[in-house]
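To close the chapter, one final illustration. This time we ask the reader to focus less on the individual chains and more on the assembly as a whole: which components sit near each other, and how the overall shape emerges from the parts.
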Amino acid sequence: MTEQAKTSLQERYFSLITTYPKVVLVLCFILAAFFASQMPRLVKDASVDAFIPPEQETAIYRHKVERIFGLKDPMAIAVVNDTPEGIFNPKSLALIAWITRELEAVPNVDPDRITSIASAKNIVGTEEGLTVTPFLEQAPETQDEARHVRDAVMDIPLYTGTLVAKDGTGALIIFEVLDAARAEETYEAAQEMLKRAPATTEQMHVAGEGAVGGYWSAVIDRDSRRLQPLAGLVIAVIMWLAFRTKSGVLMPLAVVLATVVITMGAMALAGVPYYAITNSLTVLLIGMAVADSIHILSQYYEELAHDPMASAKELVIRTMMKISRPVLLTSLTTFSGFMGIVLTSSMPPMIYFALFAMLGVTVALLYSLTLLPAVLTLMAPRISPAFAPAAHEPGSSGPRPDIYARVMTALGTWSVANSKLVLAASLIAVLAGGYSASQLMVERARITNINPDQPLYKADTAINKRFDGTSYIDVVVETNKDEALYNPKFLNRMDAMQRHLETLPHVQGSTSIVDYLKQMNRAMNANAQEAYRIPESEDLVAQYFLLYSATSDPADFKEVVDYNYKTANIRFYMNSGLYTHGKFVVEEAERYAREEFKTDGLSAVVNGRVTVDYHWIEALAATHFWGVGLALVIVLVLASLSFKSLAAGVFTVIPVFVAVLLVYAVMAVTGITLEPATSMFAAIAIGLGIDFSIHTVERLILLMREQGRPLNEAIQQIFPTTGRALFFNFAAIFLGFGVLLTSELPTIQRFGGMIDVAILAGFLASLIILPALAAALKPAFLDPASVQRAPLGVGRAAVLPAVLLALALPLFVALTPASAAELPSGDEVAANIDAREESTSSSRTLRMILIDSSGDQRVRDTRVFRRDFGAEKKVVLFFQSPSRLKGTAFLTWDLPAGTEDAQWLYLPAARKVRRISASDRGDYFLGTDFTYEDIKRDTKLSLDDYTFKTLGTEDLDGAKAILLEATPKTPEIARDIGYGRVLARVRTDIWMPVLVEYWDKSGNPLKTVRLSDIQQQDGIWGANRVESQNVKTGHRTVFEYLETSYNDEFDNNLFTEQGLKRGL
Amino acid sequence: MDYRAALRRFTADRGGPFIGAAFGIYVCAAPGAAHGDPVVSLSDAGATAVVELAVPKEAEDGLKSELRVIPSLEFSLPKSIRLKMIGRFRADATDHFEPGVPDDNSTDPISRHTYLGDQAEMELREFYAQIPLGDVFLTLGKQQIVWGKADGLKLLDVVNPQSFREFILPEFDESRIPLWSVNAETRIRDIDLQFILIPEQTYHEIPKSDSPFAITSPRFVPPGVPGVPVTQLPANRPSRTLADADAGVRASTFLGGWDLSLLYFFHYEDIPAPSRQITRRGVIVQPEYDRAHLIGGAASKAFGDLTLRAEAGYTVGRALAVGDRRDADGVNESDVVAGVVGLDWSGFGDVFVSIQLFQDYVLNEPFGLYRPEADTTTTLFLRRKYMNDTVSLELRWLSNVNDGDGLIRPKAVYDLNDAVQVWVGADVFYGDGDGLFGQFRRNDRAVLGMSYGF
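The assembled structure is written out below.
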């Protein structure tokens, strides 16, 4: 292992590349083309939930809450009228009713989930009991009638602040979208709809979390269409200024293109979505990828200027031998900066951002060390005008310094001369930055990521001003038995919590079942104000609910209490989405829930958007400083190793350290707070900024060693060459990130701006502080004896990235969404389910229990027989009770592909077997919540009908389940089977879906099917209980398999028309 | 109204042996009756009670206030033999449809009803044994055998006669008259074969002239000549058990997605031909039952959302009334070809739509034929179910293209729970008084009913 051997390795590599340049070109092209072909598979995820770590408990619980209470992020339309009567005039009320009605027709709006005073109901007592009638059952025509409506609405505390402004100047129409991915469309459509509104004087706003998500999604699209080409253009201009040759522009652009294409292609391949911040990743990649090219081309043109007669191959090898080491090192440090983020962050978009930036750095390095030398070998050497030899200056060889070189030289000369001043100023920056960092505020509100002049921002402000607010906290109160929430004791405790939390700042109000009960109690007591309280006895509570359901839809309570009156939800409204405001309330709510809800089997869990945000942002501050620290340490270790001196390492790191602290100072001064995007700047700045000092120190040592120059002279010598190259390197990254300032998203603007500040500081620091430091301190590693020691060779240095890559690879595997790495593909899962061991025949006793939304049960006893006849599967079902259905029988022949399946129904009253269409498979089977198709497939999903995708894994009752999404292949199939989407949780040990959610063909949640009591019999797995709950109607069907036997003997004639008629 | 006498007659007469047999079987089946396991065991017992009220718009004699109780018993015998018994008790407080005690002239004595006074009657509807005999499945006894695919009107469904006491308004299951039959089914390769032999001579029950549903249309009842007295004699019902038996065979299979069947039936037409004699004392009408051969076929297949049903029949030698005075008996035998095509559609949720086109055609048109040579009827059936099939709204519309008359029947049914069903509906006839439907235009009515079953 001699230095000689290593050098020759490096030499051999470049000689190989320069001998077969065309092969290298073709290979480079094929690699890039492959990844380019994957890019169309990229999916976009603009949701803020993407930032929430998937394992975070609050987030998981939130999904549960969504399931029980059907609560989603709503959108809202505010109607504001500042006249003294407010919105309570015939015209405004008509407008509200009009909007409420028109919204139903807006695509993607859930027509069942539109709430406004036009849909809300008045609860009043009458002689017979309660009456629940819509406020606007008849549109008021006169001001007097409108005043009546006002009196009725304002009399019900439930609605003030939520549906109407407390001062009556505004009303909200709250609605939910079916498909969050289409929220933007819906937002636009709602605004279009408002334009058609009858001409009035009211102001109208559309707002809400759902609208923000939609807005973001559109902005990402617009941004990416503009930012990326702009960044490319900026790079091209800089390259032209640097080299002023066509190839000097095109080659770096080729490297940039390959880097972006391969990184994005890899994202698509890994199934990682394109998040809001991925836009800045591409811009970052563009700036980063070009840096290596700048240094290589600078060196090349310099070599060419020195020796214009050399052959292309010779020149290239000479260039690469000198520059590959620093290029490798700087790539390594950049890589390390991102590693810091990967290791400390918990937010998927940030982790992916860093992971794929690491990949990008690697690709850029690879292409710079292969594509560039290959192309340069193929080209006839042509001197760059920027590096033209100074022919008229005798005694000088090499390029004539141009304007950039001269400026850089002047800068260096100045800083060496004023080293004390420079160091003092740096020290001040360090102190100020350190102090600022300790004062750094973590803050975030989704709405602050939107331009204040956007209508959305204005809408949010208007709503928060007049209503209870657009941010909410949900508190889920759980009891341990059904109907426990009839108990006034529990209700009073819920009430106490509401009243307590409502005293906290920014909490404007709350809604729960308690408020409904109070209103009902009051209604039943002649509307007396003092009767607005919780009824005293459990019986009374039960009675009120009964009375209510007698006059109105019991589903009105769906959002506040579950079906069994076991779990309730309290929703608190806040008029601020700021993290710091939420933090205070959430912490108090969690304390209260912990301390006051721990007895009598009662428990409370704090949840809701504000809580979820609080929990993940809280983690941000901690991980931020860990990330910065880690990045610094890795960079320090790398630099120390490569220069074989800790002092040299520290020396190299100082400029970036100063730069990062400076940015903290800037943040403190400008009031920029720490949030997901901005939290990444420091680690990135370290990884990129260190490049400048590495190049500087490397060159310094090289000059001293190879040309035997003393330190001071070497410092002077750096500026025209390395300084110039660093300047263009800096310009490329600085202007590249500068492009982000033109983004429409304030968060991306801040991110780009902060990195720019850090890069500028890092660049200046390495060119000003480093020489000044060197001149002032004369460190030991820069004395003439030390520099003679050979630095770490490329061969060994190359080991470092290899090690780091090897470390990072498992990270890729571990962190890319399960679908990419561990998860089997959707098709595999579906095939496994389909291939699940089944008997060739079975006979079962099936009890069907049909339960309607009011709890009434109907029970049907049936016998079901199934047998495979080669490729044909035949199933027959006979009803045995009740008497009205006895003898009814259903026969289905599942015929091999290519033949339409056949189905028959025998109705004893007709005494006739009737052929029925098998494409009616989406129809419900004899009043159950299972379709003909469900009955036929028996927990399996047809491989012919769906395309499958795995979305991840989930813990389900302790077992691992894969989330399998099935989407009908065509709209026709969706129409046929009645499902637009199916989401199944599949147990992988037995390949059985155990919890399956269905959406209808328009995307509305339709039903949930749960399989339980899963047992193995004769080696075959089966669920003995299958329950289907229709979300829309509240109807449920339970299938209980009371008796099952496999591979039994029974008459094949059962599967014929005759058998159907004969019955059992 | 001597109930006791009626009951005595019942036990001594036709019903007696069956009740006795059933009782005997039941005794055998009763635990403790024999040592060890009972040879016969009661495997199922149930009953349905129906109360139905029909209020006519005009015809006062159309009022109906009926109670029906339909008990059913099922026994298991050794060797997988099963025995089924379905009875029916029917009481109509108004007794308008069959005033007094009917003569049951069209019914074989073995199946005649037992009348408990004017208002009530008892009947053993079905009583048969299902006997698996190797590859042959035998159904022996009083039963209903249904052929064909058509709904609402009958073309191939002619094995059993029908009661027209309320025209075609009741469910066919209730108006079809079960017959003592031998029904043997077997399967050879993929072909289901059915052989039937019906030694019972019971034919359509046609209401007498004093019933609101008495048939008056000249299509069926040749008009008399003014001033000429008409003597109506009772129909000559065949009565030789075997010589007058009906017999048939049917083969059905599933081929290329089609349900196909072919059949042949040698039988007496269930409506007697109004054979007349012109004498000096006037016209004597002596209805005669007439033998005919029916060759037919049926097919059905689903095409996506649509299900196609079709059947066709060719009758050789049907006796048809003609108005030709030169004709000796006023009845002319002719071949008739009939067909029906139906389409069912249920492509939209819980909505079911079915349309049918019926046509029959008299081949060698006899002179003076009362009925049209080609007769066309269309039907439309709409149904929508709600609330997990507990509520269903239906509309049936039958219309005769030749006469432009028809029948419209809206109905709403609600399953209160598994046992109780209630319904409300209307039967509206329209068109010319001479038409098949128009003749009952006075009988428009509203219907309200409830059933309870266990």
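The first strand of chain B starts at residue 41 and ends at 56. The longest helix of chain B spans residues 15-29. With these observations in hand, you are ready for the problems at the end of the chapter.
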